[in-house]
Hints:
Number of helices of chain A: 12
CATH topology of the largest domain in chain A: Uridine Diphospho-n-acetylenolpyruvylglucosamine Reductase, domain 3
Organism (chain A): Nonomuraea wenchangensis
Helix content of chain B: 25-40%
Structural class of chain A: alpha+beta
Number of strands of chain B: 28
Distance between the termini of chain B: 87 Å
Protein name (chain A): Carbon-monoxide dehydrogenase medium subunit
CATH class of the largest domain in chain B: Alpha Beta
Low-confidence stretches of chain B: 1-6
Strand content of chain A: 25-35%
Strand order of the largest sheet of chain A: 4-5-10-6-7
Low-confidence stretches of chain A: none
InterPro entries (chain A): CO_DH_flav_C, CO_DH_flav_C_dom_sf, Diverse_Substr_Oxidored, FAD-bd_PCMH, FAD-bd_PCMH-like_sf, FAD-bd_PCMH_sub1, FAD-bd_PCMH_sub2, Mopterin_DH_FAD-bd
Number of domains of chain A: 3
Structural class of chain B: alpha+beta
CATH class of the largest domain in chain A: Alpha Beta
Radius of gyration of chain A: 19 Å
Keywords (chain A): FAD, Flavoprotein, Oxidoreductase
CATH architecture of the largest domain in chain B: 2-Layer Sandwich
Shape of chain B: globular
Strand order of the largest sheet of chain B: 3-5-1-12-9-10-11
Oligomer: heterodimer
CATH superfamily of the largest domain in chain B: Aldehyde oxidase/xanthine dehydrogenase, molybdopterin binding domain
Pfam family, one (chain A): CO_deh_flav_C
Order of helices and strands of chain A: EHEHEEEHHHHHHEEHEEEEEEEHHH
Shape of chain A: globular
Largest sheet of chain B: 7 strands, mixed
Strand content of chain B: 15-25%
Amino acid sequence: MIPAQFEYVRPDSLAEASQVLAEDEDAKVLAGGQSLLPLLRLRLAYPSKLVDVGRLAELRGVHDRGDHVYIGALTTHDEVMRSEAVNDGCPLVALATAHVADRAIRHRGTFGGSLAHADPAGDLPAVVLALDGVFVARSAGGEREIPAAEFFVDYLENALDAGEILAGVRIPKLGPGWGFHYEKFHRTAQAWAIVGVAAAVRRSNGSIAEARIGLTNMGSTPVRAHAAEAALQGAELGDQVRRACEEAAADTEPPADLHGRPDYRRHLARVLTHRAVRAATGTP
Amino acid sequence: MSELDTGAVAEQIAQSDQINEPAATPELGRPRRRKEDARLLTGRTRWTDNLTRPGLLHVVFLRSPMAHARITRVDVSGARGLPGVVAAFSGQDFADEQGSLPCAWPVSEDIVIPDHPPMAVSEVRYVGEAVACVIATDRYKAADALEAIEVDYEPLPAVLDMEEALTDGSPKVHEAGNKAFSTKIVSGDVEAAFRDAPVVIERTFRQQRLIPSAMEPRAVLADTDGDTFTVWTSTQIPHVLRVMLAVVTGIPEHRLRVVAPDVGGGFGSKLQVTAEEVLCLLLARRLGRAVKWTESRSEGNLTVHHGRDQLQRLRLAADADGRLRGLRVDLLADMGAYLMLVTPGVPMLGAAMFNAIYKMDAYEFACTGVFTTKMPTDAYRGAGRPEATFGIERMMDELAAELGVDPLEVRRRNWIRHEEFPYTTIAGLTYDSGNYEAATDKALSMFGYDKLRAEQADRRDRGDPVQLGIGVSTYTEMCGLAPSRLLGESNYGAGGWEHGSIRMLPTGKVEVITGTSPHGQGHVTSWSQIVADSLGVPFEDVTVLHGDTAISHKGMDTYGSRSLVVGGIAVLRACDKVKDKARTLAAHLLECSPDDLEFAAGAFKVRGTDAQRTIQELAYAAFTAHDLPEGVEARLDADATFDPDNYSFPHGTHLCAVEVDTETGMVRIRSYVAVDDVGKVVNPLIVEGQVHGGIAQGVAQALYEEAVYDADGNLLTTTMADYLLPSAADLPTFQLDRTETPATSNPLGVKGVGEAGTIASTPAVVNAVVDALRPSGVRDVEMPCTPERVWRALEGARR
């Protein structure tokens, strides 16, 4: 790898890291490096400084906090997947994390890094969005909470201010009766999702009481399929659910790239949402 | 043993634990694990990028961001003063000495071979073409300094589509126009074959452009002591390269040494004389210092020669019962911007292959090579033969569908029957041997063909969203390049012989020197097996040297599945000469006539007695030379070359079952059976590995890989995120078996196996995809059959 020149700093505390970032708007946070380093390698990013937060233990770890699970930003994907608290409290996160890249990358890449990168093709943003996660940002000024719906601003752009570092994410527990599924559609095992669907669904007898659908790679940010969620509410399992899922691509502006043009992505969103909802509700 | 007891060397042999017994069973056919794997797999080896020299400098190239432009100014002065920078040059700085990259296969009288400067001087013709370079004390400083070079371009129109490129109004890639060459071969009365034919099938297929993706990127290191020059490079062709570098640069051949250290894959992409090899050598001469270049993967995607890229218009005439009357092939072959080493020869390697294993009355092959403003194409695993095999095997399925006959039945009605060999085809090649019936029968039973057809019918009846498709490919190929005489007739610039040497060392160990240049094929192991059997020495006692023109002084290198069938036989011939010498010496020492000696298990034994000398003892006797007969040299060493009188013709039957999700377009390979006939087998493990990799690469063309240029001529697939290579996770378990019909063109009865899997598998997969969708009205899906393409094909058929 031959990146352009940059300075490297490894602060001893979150406060120090925050200060460095506040002073230099061209500085970038380096966590697991699994998204940033490829950009450096291709010289698509020219940061002045890399602020390596990799050894800040306070950013690492998963904590069960009663009504929510708190996942420290530096927790690796592998740790998240294996965490009892995650598997019990927000199993959709564990399910989706198992689809992130490959085993080697999951041992290096971090939960927070992958979210802060704000790549709409990443698997986790749509999941946290669907689960109404809350992002916890820290800076010299203290702590700020950012709802997932406000965190993803644009393609590779998040709502963190200069000097703010993502410390962790609160994932609310959904309680009993919910089923989950992450449906990823990609051409090879290691490829990004052409479209992905994160579904959390609460069943009530033979119909759906409540559904939350997050879409991967269906816009410049991860998006909620609000129309489908509304249509699913009260829908009886079977044809009604199928018809409700036809709304999955409403109001989306999916990208065009080598793996799919927008009309194909919209079609996929509908098909995959139906599959994800069926899987989440345990219906064939 | 008495003569040996006194020598220190003999002492070493006697006391060493390295006394190896010759294998009790023959080495040929034995699944030996590869001798070279431990160091290759751990990387504790000589990849070119691992090598260093005193005072080594690093070069990086500035590459054109324009597909086509006039260069109006290059200013490298900004780079020259930067930290660590030793020099910076533009193409103009080397205009007088860089020469033109060679094309060694002028396939026709009308061929146009444009000047191809290693570093562009006045015009760039593809994105990625080198325009300037920086030489610095490390790669990082060199890469940084590149950004200080200023180049002014005056844009010229890109030329991207082959059919448009051949129209009158098209912008030109070169002054002489966009047609590189045109050829036509006619055999039989084609008009008659098509006149009143009950069935005529006409199809156009696109062979997409592929990027060979060897695991080891290219790397070149050049050094000089002021008098002689050495180039270490990740190449398949050190011997050919030495000659070509001498011709291009004017450095006399005897002062030039080329070394291919361990090379991590090539697939044809390192069968080339590259701009970077020439330029590193010239930079070493200009600067008087060692210079190294190692490409990045993205740089490689842009500038490693690409493969395939043909538009195939095929017409097939048949009788009502499916018997073939004639085939017309009309190809456009994308040359890219220049003709490289064998660029125009690649489509011509398919010229006699479209007729494949089938009998027919008439055949016509026409091919036009077209210049475009893209990276030049050249050999890629199979080179011309996968394209041809794809074309005919797709057509046979289309014919079967037209007639409503099982695709295997149509093939059976037309293929050469095993009792008809040797058979001279309509295209003029003589297939020496083969048994298509046997391979097909075996494949059918492994595959469970009838059961899968029943499941397919059931899914169709049920309207299952997941449809099953079955694809057939009964292929042959010509490989083992090859007879020098035939290559000469096709105007190829070199011969097809191979060279091998045996050095019998004093301790009885054996050094084999081969002119082939392995880059993953396991020659060290296979050649050891051949020699162990022939000389009766232990497998462990044989080593194989290769790839360095100072050690292996003659060779034609490795490509076209030629190493075993040509190079392996040269080694065998050298063994024969060693045994002849050893027999004379043994007879002298045993005081008998050479005719009284029988050779078995590595020893010459006087018939009817216990008196004997092993060949390893004789090597020592030759070394001491204390008692040699009149006229016998103090060595058993021998050299031999081999030049077969025909190609070899592997064949086989590949069967593929796919599940196609008609809702998403996703194709999943459910099962894959390959029964290949590669003749006699030296090492079944290596053969299996070649078939596995070959199938994977063919599947990759069918489903995954495609080099994509945008409307401005920019390559979009510069990383592996966009240029998709399948991994083990994406591929099924291959069920493999073999039939064994020996080749008659060499004494081991072997055929090549390096390309067979790739040649066979692409049509098997695409035929399966089309078979799954045919009831929906789909009769073709362009490669690669991505989910989106499959979905659109279905959408198109639904409308």
